[in-house]
Write a structure and sequence with these properties.
homodimer; 6-stranded antiparallel sheet; about 725 residues; Jelly Rolls
């Protein structure tokens, strides 16, 4: 049943590629919508936009299409903006909602101006429809000379138009809103003259007050924890409204933060969404309300991936991880729902990877990639963070591998070029990156000193992988000159990494080099990445496992963010059992502290309210942070062991590993289908609705398969090619 | 009396520099307003935006100010956009309209988001006021680390804030509208079942219909000529409205081009302004109106410059030139009022120069310079035209010379750099510019073949002057590295010009070189510019005068645009009498054809309606085109002979030349005052209210002065230093 639903859904999506849809200039709607979303952050009633450049859509865009009609055809036209229509270069009167195209070959252009929201069009005719076959440009360069002759526009840069599932004339992109649904509190109690309301778990949305009347102020203090909600002085978010009588019979309600006033109705809904589990409400004596509830605001996601095993704690970790992802997946993948509510590249790449094993929501991945990249000129690193620039590159190729969407790579490639030009303009004489004034060298939030000076091995490893990504994407984009150029740059840098950073004393990559001299400190970061980027010899990898990864004297990682990569490195080294233990300790630890979603940072040695503090503020920490949800990814990619080998899962790898569990089962979504896998200590069942790939596993004795031929590899390793959509059952020991 | 008025006006303007005013990011309001204006072009009821990139303001801007208060102070805050206030890095609740600043030293930041119109603020306190001392940035890069420590923002690029005379909280920049005043027709007559209305001269504004009622359509055809208004099929602009009954008593009027519907009132005003002298109105039988009038829309300008002489035709030419300038000076200096209504760099530089001798409206010069430059990245030449890019550079330095406003040069310099980087990225192996695909090499509209291939001498001359301008502006902006760099590039190119283009056979610069080989054609363009840029020896200049400028076999110039430079070159060679004759022939010729404003192009050999045609359209030509008004400039700069020698007229030159006139008198405005000059064949009277400068003149006998000392120069030339504000009278013969 579930399968059928997916097939219907995806057939519908395929159809849409040839059906009319709202179209716009690639990235423009995403940047505009991103501004709307990023600007919803507040801090104690203050509007809190981000500190990097906020871009704008192109305000004037031309949409064009070559048509060839057997018969005249009437088209319906809906436009966001002021527009004109040109047929074969001739401007037509006014801004018609219907227009008849003559038979034959013609060029049709619609040019739209819109400062406030992105220029977008929707065209619907019998055969002529706005879709991905239309071209767009922000500068058509078409002029006519004195004699009326039109210019040569061969240098005009046209892009394929972009769209995003707005398939009705009546649902233009700028009207997009996340849906809401009512949600009730699980308890209300009087505390210190106010009322504390508990919604039972971390949630997100708009508080509603029923029967609000009288005269006076109502204060609403939000908390991800009870402590935060009750702390009127230090809670991170709050609302304050004033109820006033404008006349004997009409009550007016003003939001004091936004100065918006509305007439009172039976239910007053706060005008900005917040993240919380608790709200604490105090009010003046002259004002009253009868009930408090909320509208839960969410991105409708289809949870296509799943994971279950014999260990209930792991199952709970997976579930809370999935819920954390649901809350942080919105118009875009954001970091945390209480505080930043912004898109951050380092956070986003992890969300994308988790998403591929959970929702497989490719639109939101693309939206976030566009938004994070923004417009040219590049004036700072992505989110101002050097490492985040590199993660942005990596995320583009990941997207291609999971989805096979080469069209997107072609569209975004020009912005990859300009971002890489920015990076290359900031390298030192060794061709390496060092933090320059205004660059934020982030690495991680660490409970210990992290040197950010000189050439960090971590940054060079990411830079090298980014150059490799440029070469790969240049190839997908059909730019062979760039491919060769970036292959060479990547090879140059890669050849320098080990000589520059490997320490035979430490048997590891050192943290950094200053003025060409290795510093003695070793940290986990570059070592982890070098392992799963495969930048090391087998021997070096094994050395790192002991000298760094399993060495407690190396500065510990206390963010789920870097745990993500740390555990990925351990998985890449086959240390699944250690990873299972870490998951149960670390994520299980958060659950034991009462987490209903995963946190921004967790130090098991913290006590009580220490868990809530960060950034020098008692409740500064986000208790629902996307990067907290990594088990969703690890369990899919390294336990079920499924990942794409060729773009879009046309070939996949399945290398399941129980990691000490008795059994596990799960589903990994693919672009048009899914791969189901069950494994216990004797049996593997796999069923792939698309693609083909090897199931690789270890067996002490000779395994058997219900179908196909098992090949023996080195040692105890075996593999069998899974083709077709039938379930294959393998017995092993 | 007139003088007193100016002094009061300018004192008020000086005061404003220290008074509160709306402030914004430099160039942003100008770009936004420019889009509004450029997008008012229509062609036969179709919206007609331009074909180059339309930029946007920065949508998120931070305004900051370091304050030091003796006592606490309440400020009033008006903002265009959603905003926050930070005091010493701490966000304040909400978006307050009043805020109390504590005594002492503090940093005050206001961060504003506005997608639809430019972020702008107005702050008014006893001592704290929004003014030019505030800094602005689009990317403050201020982040806090895990511990709450704020980042080093020393790499943040702050700019001085910009303003433009919006000095009341209640008049925000985005609400700016040009004023209107009622204007009546001079005649109405029935023609072919419709009505032809004549407003007596070229004008601009909104047609009004009085007593519009009934049911049916009304068509309004606009014409700069009677022929155009009466030609329903080919007139360039038109309106069509539908009057309908929504109910028995309420009439609704719809503009069919814009789809806007309004309830009928006694007077219906068309919603888009048009340029015309005539309108021709036809209507359905069921609809009626009682009267037609208009609202004249204009930029209020103070006509500070003047010119009068004994020749009435020259006086009429000056008056019609001034009126042409009044019509084309709007939010920005536009080309023509009927058709493009756009800012074009080559047109604008001439408007600026005329303006310095007429209105001395420096705000509109700056606005137009900002708009033409737009935002980075540069994706094409200015208006897509190579020559127009160069004129843009030249106009910036002109502005500095006439106004002395070094603050503006400092503000705009970064955009000069990026535009020059674009040009330098498109030079050939000789370091010269050649048209590449997508570049429009314009030169001029010519009634003959103009080769646009290879290295045009005209483009290299402009390029060379642009490099010199970069060096000069780098110096003003305090960028010594750039100054040296551009001085070197300019010198390199200049050294190549004569060897590359001078032909000893033709005694002139040839038109172009292809693959390093001189082509035989000679045109006027580069020769004219090389004369007044002083790129030639005296001998070469004299050769050019005869071989090109006064040589009828060289392709004639038929646009007032290039006549501007042609006559400037003749003036620079002292050929004023020839220029006087040309003015009377050419501009006088337009007047004799009935011109009430000057035209885009005029070929004296055209007959009748041929004068109206251009671009392959019968009424394509603009009959009110800014570049038509050049006598206003020539008479001020080369007849009254007054121009700045040092920035802002701190030193001026006065070298009057009657050019065959019996007497002349006039006023040339300066930043804070004016220079008045009268001259007849025996007497020169001069009075400068600011600055000092030499009056230079020719006299056969020894001249006498009422004040000061006359020095003798070479030949019959004399000069006298004019200092102080008293009138000086010189007798000469």
């Amino acid at each position: 049943m579930k399968n059928t639903l997916f097939l219907i859904l995806f057939s519908a999506m395929s159809l849409m590629l040839n059906a009319q849809t709202w179209i716009w200039y690639p990235g423009d709607y995403e940047i505009w919508l991103g501004n709307e979303m990023n600007n919803r952050r507040t801090e104690r009633g203050a509007f809190f936009p981000h500190f990097w450049k906020m871009d704008s859509h192109y305000v004037l865009v031309e949409f064009s299409k070559q048509i060839d009609l057997a018969a005249p055809e009437e088209i319906e036209i809906a436009v966001e903006g002021k527009f004109n229509i040109k047929l074969d270069g001739k401007l037509q009167f006014g801004m018609p909602q219907k227009f008849t195209l003559p038979a034959g070959k013609h060029s049709l252009n619609i040019k739209v101006w819109n400062q406030a929201t992105p220029p977008a069009i929707f065209v619907h005719g019998k055969t002529v429809k706005s879709d991905g076959s239309w071209k767009v440009t922000y500068e058509d360069k078409e002029w006519i000379d004195e004699s009326g002759k039109a210019s040569d526009t061969s240098a005009t840069v046209y892009m394929p138009s972009a769209s995003g599932g707005f398939n009705l004339a009546t649902t233009p992109p700028s009207a997009y809103k996340l849906p809401v649904k009512p949600q009730q509190a699980v308890s209300r109690e009087s505390v210190l003259g106010g009322e504390l309301i508990d919604f039972g778990k971390e949630t997100f949305g708009y508080i509603q007050l029923k029967g609000l009347s009288g005269v006076g102020k109502v204060n609403i203090y939000y908390g991800e924890s009870k402590e935060e909600a009750l702390d009127k002085e230090f809670c991170e978010t709050l609302d304050c409204i004033t109820v006033a009588n404008s006349a004997a019979t009409n009550s007016l309600i003003t939001n004091n933060a936004t100065n918006e006033t509305v007439p009172a109705t039976d239910i007053y809904t706060l005008n900005s969404s917040k993240a919380f589990r608790y709200v604490y409400i105090t009010k003046d004596a002259g004002v009253k309300y009868s009930d408090v509830s909320m509208l839960f605001e969410y991105k409708p996601e289809n949870q296509r991936g799943s994971f279950r095993c014999n260990d209930d704690e792991i199952n709970r970790i997976w579930d809370v991880g999935a819920y954390t992802m649901l809350l942080t997946t919105r118009e875009f993948f954001i970091d945390g729902i209480k505080r930043d509510r912004w898109t951050w590249s380092g956070d986003a790449i992890q969300s994308y990877l988790m998403n591929y094993y959970l929702f497989f929501d490719t639109e939101t991945v693309k939206n976030t990639i566009w938004l994070l990249r923004g417009k040219d000129p590049v004036t700072s690193h992505t989110n101002t963070i050097m490492d985040y620039t590199f993660y942005w590159f990596l995320s583009v190729y990941d997207y291609y591998m999971f989805t096979g969407d080469s069209r997107f790579i072609q569209m975004v490639y020009p912005r990859m070029q300009s971002l890489m030009d920015y990076v290359l303009g900031r390298t030192n004489k060794n061709g390496m990156v060092e933090g320059m004034t205004g660059d934020w060298v982030f690495v991680d939030w660490a409970d210990g000193y992290l040197d950010k000076h000189g050439e960090l091995s971590y940054e060079q490893v990411l830079f090298c992988k980014s150059l490799e990504t440029m070469a790969l994407c240049a190839k997908v984009a059909g730019n062979d000159v760039d491919r060769v150029k970036y292959e060479r740059s990547a090879a140059d840098l890669r050849a320098k990494l080990i000589p520059a950073f490997w320490s035979e004393t430490s048997k590891a990559l050192v943290h950094n080099r200053i003025d060409g001299i290795q510093r003695p400190d070793v940290t986990r970061y570059s070592n982890m990445f070098a392992v799963f980027f495969n930048y090391l010899t087998l021997e070096q990898k094994q050395q790192i496992k002991h000298s760094v990864l399993l060495n407690d004297s190396i500065l510990k990682i206390t963010t789920p963010y870097m745990r993500f990569y740390e555990l990925e490195a351990l998985c890449a080294l086959g240390e699944h059992k250690a990873v299972t233990k870490e998951m149960k300790d670390y994520w299980g630890g958060m659950l034991r502290e009462g987490a209903t979603s995963f946190w921004e940072k967790y130090n098991p040695s913290d006590k009580g309210a220490e868990h809530l503090a960060m950034y020098g503020r008692p409740y500064g920490k986000s208790l629902c942070h996307a990067w907290g949800a990594s088990p969703v990814y690890l369990l899919g990619k390294y336990y079920l062991g499924i990942q794409p080998v060729k773009p879009g899962y046309s070939e996949f790898a399945a290398e399941p590993n129980l990691g000490g569990l008795k059994w596990m089962e799960g589903v990994v979504p693919t672009p048009q289908g899914e791969i189901k896998l069950y494994m216990n200590e004797k049996l593997i069942r796999i069923k792939a609705s698309e693609g083909k790939g090897y199931l690789t596993f270890v067996s002490k004795s000779k395994p058997k398969a219900s179908k196909g031929t098992i090949e023996k590899l080195d040692g105890n390793k075996y593999r069998i090619l899974i083709t077709g959509t039938d379930e294959v059952v393998v017995s092993y020991k």
